[in-house]
Amino acid sequence: MKIRVRDIEELWKDRFAALVAGRGGLDRIVEFYDMMEQPDIKPWLRENLLVITTGYAIRNDKKALLNLIRDLREVNASALAIKTRFFDEFPKEALALADECEIPLFFLNNDVGFIEVVYPVMTAIVEARNQLEMSSRYRIGTYSQMEMNGKLFLDLQSGKITQAEEAEQRVNSLSWPFPPLRMILIQTEQNPRMAAAQEKDMESIYQMMKGAMERAGIWGAGIVRQYQYICIMKDVEEEKADSLCSTMVEKICSMLKYRVAAGVSQQFYDYLELGAVYKDVKDVFRIREKKGLSGNVLWVEKLRYEQIVMHMAQQREVRAFVQEKLAALEIYDREHESHLAETLEMLSACRGSRKTAAERLYLHRNTMSYRLNQIEEVLGCDLSDAGQLEELGFACRVKEYM
Questions:
Q1: Rounded CA gap, 352 and 370, in Å?
Q2: Which of 124, 203, 367, 374 has most Cβ atoms within 10 angstroms of its Cβ?
Q3: Residue 199 above 90 pLDDT?
Q4: Do 118 and 176 belong to one domain?
Q5: Contact call for residues 179 and 268 (beta carbons, < 8 A)
Q6: CA distance 220 to 365
Q7: Is residue 224 classed as helix, strand or coil in its secondary structure?
Q8: Is residue 138 included in any domain, yes or no?
Q9: Could you tell me which residue ranges the Purine catabolism PurC-like domain spans (predicted)?
Q10: DSSP code for 357
Q11: Which of 33, 67, 30 is nearest to 53 (CA)?
C-alpha cells in the first residue's frame, strides 16, 4: 500500500500544516522524507521525496524558491513543506508555479516543532510498508509527545520494530538519547484505585519526570503506562542516576499517595534490545517482593545473582531437584506444625554454623540440636557433610522463587 500526499494532508490538517498550492499533485506517492536547509539541495532530491524545511537558507530569495519548485518537478518529488517565518512576504509567484507544476506546497505551523511534524509522516511511511490502513494512520497526527513516546516504546518493547535503520529514525525523530543507555522502571501496585489515580495524573507525572531529568542534566525520554513510569536515559554515573530515581519515586509517591519503587537496568547500546532490557529490569520487583528488600531503588547489576537463582527456579529439572530434596521436610512441618524447613534454610544461610543459626533464630543450642537431628532423620541426610549441606542449601535458595 502506497502513501500519497493527500494522506500527508490528512495527517497534518488542523494543527501541523495547511496545503496552499499544488492541489493537482495530491496523488503523488510519498516514499521518503528529508529535512533540508542547504541553499542548493538539488543534488539530494529524488523521486517520491517529501522535502521539509524552515526555508531559512532561501529566505527572501524568490529565484531560489522558484528554482526549488522546478527542481522538485524535474525529479518527480512528492511535495514541499516550508515554514514562512523567515519570509517578509511569501512570493505569490511560488504559489502559482506550484499549481502549474502540480507540486503540493504546504505552509508549516510556525509554532510547532519539527519533531511533531515529522513523527506522523515517518510513522505513516514505515507502517505503509506493513500494509496498515490509512484510517489507522490518521490518528497519529493527534498524538502528544507523551503518547508518541509511549507508542515508540511499545513498538520497541514488543519487537514490532526489527530493523536498526527504522529504530534509529524513530528515536532520533523524538530526540531520544544516544547510547550508552539505561532504563529506569518505576512500578506501582496494581489495583483499580491505583489505575484511577494514575489516569488522572498521567500528564502531570510525565511533566514531572521530564522536568526532573532536565534539572539533573540527564538526557532522557519519559514514558507513562498503566502502573509504570519509564525513563530511557543516557547513562550517567551511579550517584547521579540514583539521585534521579529517588527524586522521581518520592514525587510519584506524593502525587499518587501510593508507594512505588524503581528498578535500574544494566547499561545497553542498542534500542532493538529494549524488549529484553525491559524484561530484565522487571525481575527486580519480584526479587524485592520475595526477599523483602526495603530499598526503593534497585539495580539489576546488584541483584544479578538473585536473578539467576530466580530464573533457575523455573527450570523443570531444578524444580524436580528441589521437590526431591525438600518435599519430605515440608510434609513433616505441615503434619507436626514444626519449623524444620525454616531451620534448614537458616543453617544454610549461615554456611553450616550451628551457633550462628541458633542465635539468629533465637533458639537454645539444645533446641537447635534437636531440630537438626529431626531434619537428618526426616531427610535421611548428614548435615555435617559439606556436600550434602550445599545441595540442601541450593534447594532452599531456589525454593524461595517457586
A1: 16
A2: 124
A3: no
A4: no
A5: yes
A6: 56
A7: strand
A8: no
A9: 17-125
A10: H
A11: 33
Q: Quick check: 340 and 374 in contact, CB under 8 A?
A: yes
Angstrom CA distances, 44 to 3, 37, 72, 128, 137, stand at 21, 11, 11, 23, 28
Residues 6+ apart with CB under 8 A from 357: 343, 346, 347, 349, 350, 368
Shortest CA distance to 119 belongs to which of 157, 87, 146? 146
228 and 186 Cβ atoms separated by less than 8 Å: yes
Which one, of 81, 84, 206, lies nearest residue 149 by Cα? 206
- Please determine, for residue 64, whether its predicted confidence score (pLDDT) is greater than 50: yes
**Tens-place pLDDT, residues 371-384:** 999 999 999 999 99
126 and 149 assigned to the same domain = no
* Contact criterion met (CB below 8 Å) for 75 and 45: yes
Rounded to a whole number of angstroms, the distance between the first and last alpha carbons of the chain is 49
Average of per-residue pLDDT values in the chain: 88
Residue 309 lies in a domain: no
Residues in Cβ contact with 199 at an 8 Å cutoff, skipping those fewer than 6 apart: none
Beta-sheet pairing, 181-188 with 105-108 = unpaired
What HEC string does 5-35 produce? HHHHHHHHCCCCEEEEECHHHCCCECCEEEE
Residue 377 belongs to what domain range?
314-400
pLDDT confidence of residue 134: 46
233 grid coordinates: 536515559
Q: How wide is the angle at C-alpha 296 spanned by C-alphas 293 and 302, nearest 5°?
A: 65
Give the pLDDT of residue 37.
78
| CA geometry: angle 164, 166, 172, nearest 5 deg | 100
pLDDT of residue 131: 55
Q: Nine-digit cell at 366?
A: 539444645
Query: Cell 517482593 maps to which residue?
Result: 289
Tell whether 137 is covered by a domain: no
How far is CA 210 from each of CA 44, 69, 230, 258, rounded to the nearest angstrom? Answer: 36, 40, 11, 21
Pair 153, 274 in one domain? yes
Burial 12-32 (b: 16+ CB within 10 A, else e): beeebbebbbbeebbebebee
Cβ-proximal residues to 282 (8 Å cutoff; 6+ apart), any chain:
185, 187, 263
